[in-house]
Amino acid sequence: AGIYDLFEDVFTSGALGCPKPGKEFFDGCIERVDRYLETAGQPGIHKEEILMIGDSLTSDIGGAVSYGLKSCLLDASGEKFGKQEGVDHEVRSWQEIERILLG
Questions:
Q1: Which of the residues in the chain have pLDDT under 50?
Q2: Looking at residue 19, what is its pLDDT?
Q3: Residues 66-95, buried b or exposed e (16+ Cβ, 10 A)?
Q4: How far apart are the first and last CA of the chain?
Q5: How far apart are CA 38 and CA 56, in angstroms?
């Protein structure tokens, strides 16, 4: 999609060994980011600084909302829009995500 360079890291449940939408998955993501920041001499990350981008209402968006993270639903068809309470952004393309990330 041409936006990979906008991210410091990408997390998958397979790589972390914890299924979404479990709290352990999100804990693992934060722990990994905190280790990276620590080695760079920077303070740890706060939940308010994280945006969960996903296309699944249950495992991606529902998990993020339950964990207290901002969320972005990527739904090219628009069929899932408005079906999950607490979604911060609903987008239909990677270009829209790029605009959100670049602010």
A1: none
A2: 92
A3: ebebbbbbbbeeeebeeebeebeebbeeee
A4: 18
A5: 31
